Amino acid sequence: MQMNRRQLIQWAGATAALASLPATTFAAQDHLKPARLRAGDAVALVAPATVNYDRLRVQLAVETLEAMGLQVDVGKHVLDRFGYLAGTDADRAADLNRAFADPDIKAIFPLTGGWGASRLLPLLDYRSIARNPKILLGYSDITSLLNGIHARTGLVTFHGPNAWSEWNEFSYRSMHQLLFEAEPLAYNNPQDRGVDLVAKDNRTRTINGGLASGKLIGGNLTLVAALLGTPYLPAFDGRILFLEDVGEAIYRVDRMLTQLALAGQLQRLAGIVFGQFTGVAPQPGLGNFSLMDILRQHCEPLGVPCYYGAMFGHVNHNSTLPVGISATMDATAGTLVLNEPAVT
To answer: Where is the LD-carboxypeptidase N-terminal domain (predicted)?
Structure first.
């Protein structure tokens, strides 16, 4: 998720202004699980981030959720436009707050990511969210909502496909096992060597080997770094951090990991699982690092298990991971196993 220096300064100013707005405060619960989904449940389709220019996108998202056996309630402001956002901050937040407060709604599916979801964090009714725990599933820019809501309420949230995403069999099966069947999933990359003697695709790479256990937090690296210094980033102590990103220059990945390290956050972790950083490659010229160079430079000194290549994020095969659930990672084998169901 690329942003030039001027855009970053403007965004930081806007975020600081929003942070001064009042938000409902109370003690977050330690472990607040939503109820599982069942066929026939009503779910909300909302647009908390980027504007949607195509009504067909909304129609396809609705049809996708209906194909899962769900009844879809489309948010009032899903088709709104406010600059590059899907409506004003107040209207987008109202759709989210309404969905959480509605006892008939069992899960909330953002239409897509993009930009602007973090602007809603000061406007959410966290007391209502805690009283009405339900599934929130999304990724990319939705990372800010997943972690912010978890930090403020303790609600387990879910990093996985947005409603308008590529819902292939792999991505759908991962979500269904976790959210409908309440299975404590084991995440390992399927290996298909095709006509070759060894599998070449979807391989994991060990950075620091070993086992680690802890509750999961994370998502898109750009958004995790942007939440640093706010009350919307969960504590890193003893956690397993999972990270992915898309279309970033190597130096930006380096800068964001450096920011997390300088803030003393990486040093608190039990382990790190990196997804597949899509479209991240060295820029032309001399003296560049590869992505793996940067990840090793940041992870090796930590001395905790770390591996790269898990299948989640901006990839065709997008696993659903729960924020706030205990898991055990094996960085040598490149696997992650949930220690408990993520829903009740």
So the answer is: 43-160
Cα torsion 121, 319, 84, 65 to 10°: value is -100
Q: What is the pTM of this model?
A: 0.91
Shared-domain flag, residues 250 and 321 = yes
Same domain, 151 and 288: no
Does residue 180 sit within a domain? no
**Token pair for residue 324?**
């706030």
Which ranges of the chain does DSSP label H, i.e. alpha helix? 5-19, 55-67, 89-101, 126-131, 143-153, 169-179, 221-226, 250-262, 291-299
Query: Does 296 lie in the same domain as 205?
Result: yes
Number of H helices, E strands in the chain: 9, 14
Whether 314 is catalytic is yes
Residue 206, strand partner residues: 307
Digit-coded pLDDT (tens) for 31-86: 899 999 999 999 999 999 999 988 999 999 999 999 999 999 999 999 999 999 99
Tokens of 289: 């690092």
Our answer to whether residue 174 is catalytic in this structure is no
Give per-residue pLDDT as tens, 116-130.
999 999 999 999 999
Residue pair 232/264 in contact by the 8 Å Cβ criterion: no
Residue from 77, 118, 174, 244 carrying the catalytic annotation: 244
The pair of structure tokens assigned to 311 is: 């299948």
E-only strand ranges, 198-331: 205-208, 211-220, 240-244, 271-275, 306-310, 321-323, 326-330
Candidates 150, 159, 298, 314; catalytic one: 314
Secondary structure element (H or E) that encloses residue 73, with its range: strand 71-74
Annotation marks residue 248 as catalytic: no
What is the number of structural domains in the chain? 2
Element (H, E) at 338: strand 335-338
CA distance 94 to 261: 35
Determine which one of 118, 140, 171, 326 is catalytic: 140
Cross-strand pairs, 85: 50, 82
